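Lab notebook, bench 4. Still working through the backlog of constructs that have no structural model yet. Next entry is a single chain of 249 residues. Request: give me the structure tokens for it.
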Amino acid sequence: MTDRVALVTGGGAGIGEAACLRLAREGRSVAVLGRGRENTTAVANAIVDGGGKAIAVQADVADRGQIADALAAVRSALGPVTILVNNAGIEEFSAFQDIGEDAWDNIMNVNLKGVYHVTQLVLPDMLAAGWGRIVNLTALGAQIGGPNMAHYTASKGGLTAMTRTLATELGPKGITVNAVSPGFIQTPMAQRAIDGELFHAAPEDILASYPIPRIGQPDEVAVAIAMFASEDAGYITGQTLGVNGGCCT
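Model written out:
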């Protein structure tokens, strides 16, 4: 279905990049949105070189004006957006008593308020089409907790609640809203935490407790995103699917 346009935030690397490439392989036109021009352009070029249709746009999801400008460019180049993957996110490790107000606000502005901005600005396209797919990226830590990540897990827990609420509100309008909750996935953000020894335990010890005792790959998360974004997923909404090697189930 090449007439569907997908917007993927944080699309320049990691899970976002994998989602862009997967959706393009399934015939979607893809808008690769991120703050870095080099990464987003590389992903869009890879899609075009493979015979797909894509555009790279730069914006900070915490800045509503930048998002509005980016969407205007997407609509002009590709058409209305009816698939939205809210993937952009940041993390920080800090003991709760040491989290400053600025750090708290920064996490919330990107991980939660950013989803509010992007979704609200994209929604008119879906309402006009009477069809839409919204996929939010939450996190395993929002379900089981994550030491030294209270602000991050709170933002992702709020996104889980938003997912359920939007599903009830938008379902009658032909729009589904679901969440994918990744576990330990090999992304640049995870690698920075590994290199900085920021996790509460050694990565190999964490992974040894999983039923599938290895780190996951971004492509494995993209499978779940593409499923929720598919034409066939019209009766699935308000769900959170863990892609976590069976951890904590």
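Notes after review: The domain at 5-241 is CATH 3.40.50.720 (Rossmann fold). The chain has one domain: 5-241. Flag for follow-up if needed.
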